[in-house]
Amino acid sequence: MELIIATLTNLLILSSMYILVALGFAFLFSMLGILNLAHGVIYMLGGYIGLTLITALGLNQWLALLLTTLIVATFGIFLEKYCFRPFVGDFNRIVMICVVITVVLQTGVNIIAGTQILSLPPFAEGIFKIGPASVSYERIVTFAIGAVLLLAVTWFVNRTKWGQQMQAISQDLEGAYLQGINVHRISALATFIGCGLAAIAGCLMGAYLCLGPFMGDFMLVKVLMLTIIAGVGSIGGIFIAGLILGSLDSVLPLLVSGAASNATAIAILVVLLLIRPQGFFGHEVEL
Amino acid sequence: MVNVLLEVENITVHYGKSIAIQDVSLEVAEGSVVSIIGANGAGKSTILRALSGLTPLTSGEIRFAGSRINGKSATEIVTLGIVHIPEGRHLFPYLSVLSNLKLGASLRKDKAGINKDLEEVYKLFPILRGRRNQKAGTLSGGEQQMLAIGRGLMAKPKLLLMDEPSVGLAPIVIEQLGEVIKDINKRGVSVLLVEQNVHLALGVASMGYALQVGRVVLQGDIATIRSSNIVKKAYLGG
Amino acid sequence: MNRRLSTRGRRELTKPAVYAGLVVIVALLPLFFGSPYIQHMLILTFIYIIAAVSFRTIVISGQFPLAHAAFMGIGAYLAAMASKWLGLSPWITIPLSALVTAGIGMLIGYPFSRLRALYYAMGSLFFGIGVIQIIYAGGSWTGGYSGLTGIPALLPGTISKIPYYYFFLGLALVSIIALYRIEFSRIGTNLKAIAQSHVVASSVGINESGYRILAVGVGCFFVGLAGAGYTHYNMVLSCSSFNFMATLWLVMYVLIGGINSFAGPIIGTIILIIIPEFFRDLKMFSPFVTAAILGIVVYLMPQGLVSLPQMVRSRLTERRNTKKVSHAS
Questions:
Q1: Exposed e or buried b per residue across B69-101, where buried means at least 16 C-beta atoms within 10 angstroms of its C-beta
Q2: B75 in contact with A at a CB cutoff of 8 Å?
Q3: CA distance C12 to chain A (A)
Q4: Is the minimum CB–CB distance between A284 and chain B shorter than 8 Å?
Q5: In chain B, what are the domains?
């Protein structure tokens, strides 16, 4: 019973965090064709800024979470303008600039915080009990924040004017220009939101698991897998792919140990990719 | 005398090093329909792309309602009232018909006006009302062209630029298209139409231009165009 | 017209002489740099040049492989295990594991050859991660997380790095010449045709997937060679040398030099390994130097470092022309 609940909550948390980070990556990818390999370090940066605000400045956790989101999201606007926009359509230079961002941020964090494993204080304490089952409040809160944000993003993309414009840009860039949509402003907005979401996930995962300068590499790989399995341009697909990945990562370790479970997960994903190269839910893009 | 809405003066456009159009001049009078005809690759689409700010000019000037617009962004040009319905339609295939129409009004803030124009579009194309929740990519070719025009109208244009609206449509649909263009024009929207289908182009317009390898080779009112030898030989079969 | 022809003719003659001169200079370097550390860095440079140039061989077929360091790892671990557990001589394990790596690459390349562009890149990326996980899961056979130690040396008994220096210089030269000849043979032309347009290429009778797999096989053979050589030089292996980030660094070597030129990966590897060494005193801050080099190339040299001479030349003629114009006025 304990194990089932622990696995299930872990599955939900991992899935929602993967999806949160992947959304921002998918926005940039589907709108401007930018493969943002720096999205992982942005997630990592979120965790460390959150930690700094809480421990060094002594801010309230929730205030720190909010501030972190704003700081990293604003940083995203800077990235979009100076690092991505000049190279739209140039795959090679986008990859290079992303490596530059990764090296700079990882080295910076390394110098300031060191390589030791840190963690944020939990966002909630105590244990919730119903009958024989018990779940820590931290898990509930982490998942609740993730779920609320995911609902909010879905609402934003499907129901608001800006969200519709984001979709328009990703489906037909020239068509979007001709409707007078301000493509630069909307992509900046999408990067703002995407980096903000990654920062929140960084803080939450930094409390749920731990912080390390290389946590971004791990997340980046998850995000790439998720986006490819989902296919481009489908938010629903990202949700399903996120659940698949979260399930693999939370259930497989129970069946096979350690690295073997990672290898199995990868094997499953490679097979999925070979069956449906364009992803399962989106439409193929030419790059 | 009728006011001139759009004046294009000696514009030249390059794609990389090759010249797409050279020293093209044309005018669209307020409330008129003007057609540009010419073969594939004559540079017709380039003129429209230059007008809507997608392609920069090498030289020349474009004036709309008296003020210079070349160098302005695509967004600014839509705000001024020039709306470009591109060749190939460029709809948003995974969004609903209604969303596509509303995106046409991206720059407008007047909710009441938008809803009123939506009704107008539905009146013009009743089929779109029935399909408003369907994804744009699932419509037939003719319906997609209607949607593209409807989406263009949602921006409340003063001048509509239409690029090859007849491509891929059945003859009967092309005939309807001609009626639609006349109808739109009656509502006070000027139209600059680029067409390979000369019957459609000459049927709706009052003025015409013929383009050959990037240059205007013929211009005048529709009777002149129709009777010119170039057009007769090239398009009207004798 | 005549003059242009003659300068081109002269250049055709001077080119081989310049290359021979460069090789002689590189061969004489150990005489000037006695420090084993510098020699070690140069040996690594040779090894990574093989990896980077062979990466580009796959790229010219229109595939962007993000598993190249993982294939280097396959070659390295195969050689290590064959010599450590089966007792084979390094002189056998090096060519053997290069061949097996090529075989694995072609086997994997077959299903992957139907993936295009980005999907190929992503598929190979996942494959590379999978390889690392399998090595981790290999327990005592592969050394798992703690790495593999006690691998037999290629040249047992030599403490000096100099014999290794010449061995890897030779290996790099042979690999470069072989890959150069492949690229500028009919095979290379066909590969480039496929990359340009797979539809056109198959319509003129080029067996598209066959050539794609061949390119992967060639690339994997040489990167396997580099990996196996590295194994018997370093004698210690750790998985992290072959992970996703390692692949990304290989990609950087190629891109910074210039992916459209054969010399690009060579120049890029040299610059990205050697220049940061001058800034070792910066310690923790030294990655910023690498980032700065990359940043300069990204913003100022869209075609990579190989375009630098061309850029300088056109800047100079531009200046000369403006001078002329100002004189005339």
A1: bbebebbebbebbbbbbbbebbbbbbbbbbbbb
A2: yes
A3: 31
A4: no
A5: 1-81+157-238 (3.40.50.300), 92-156 (no CATH)
